[in-house]
Amino acid sequence: MNIQKDFLSINKYSRPGRKLTAVKGLVIHWVANPNTSAKGNRNYFESLKNAAGGERWASTQYIVGLQGEILYMIPENEMAYHVGSTWYSERAKRELGSYPNATTLGIECCHTDWNGKMTDATWQNLVLLSADILRRHGLNESNLWRHYDITGKDCHRWFVKNPDEWDRFRGDVARALGREGVSMAGFTPVIAGIGSAMLLSTFFLTNGAGVV
Ligand SMILES: [Zn+2]
């Protein structure tokens, strides 16, 4: 696994610079644009600051690309615009509060078709990244959300169309967390730019990032 810090500029449309009030959940999204790259989507979020195509508010903290590459776009203690809506589910209001952008982190996933199918590399690193984030914030797989679960949006479409796949994903995360008797010991994620294999948690500790 490969993670690269590639922060957006602070701007009102994609990185408002506001602090999260808590981290109560992790929300999984699709980019809704098949075969586009993590970098291309990251640059799209960055371009929103220009409001060239009109005002649009959108971003997440992370994006996982087709080769499993991970771009870290917004610090984990800052808010992104990924689940804003005029309507929230009762469960979301109960567990995440009245404004879930302020209490959740988001991961965008790249995918290969309009069903939202992901490559094995994207899936695997989505599992590892999710487990690492959840662990560091004292959460577990029960704190995973589809965007759909919060606002009803068709996102991540693969997991909306295939609820069994959502169950499989959460099971994989549970195993990565060691909650089903399988530990992370077999995984040796590689952090880009550091040059040695290390766990993401170590990356965050040594970089002082991501601690809320
Ligand atoms: Zn979404």
Description:
31% of the residues lie in helices and 12% in strands. The chain is of the alpha/beta class. Strands 1-4-3-5-2-6 form a 6-stranded mixed sheet, sandwiched between helices. Strand 3 and strand 4 (69-72) form a beta hairpin. The radius of gyration is 16 Å and the shape is globular. The two termini are 23 Å apart. Residues 181-199 and 201-212 have low confidence and may be disordered. The structure holds zinc ion.
SS summary, helix count: 7
- Strand fraction: 5-15%
What's the Cα radius of gyration? 16 Å
Report mean pLDDT, rounded to a whole number: 89
Helical content stands at 25-40%
Kindly report how far apart the N and C termini lie: 23 Å
CATH topology: Lysozyme-like
Order of neighbouring strands in the sheet with most strands? 1-4-3-5-2-6
Uncertain spans: 181-199, 201-212
Q: What characteristic shape results from the CA principal axes?
A: globular
- Ligands bound here? zinc ion
State the CATH architecture: 3-Layer(aba) Sandwich
Structural class of the secondary elements?
alpha/beta
Described by strand count, sense and barrel closure, the largest sheet is: 6 strands, mixed
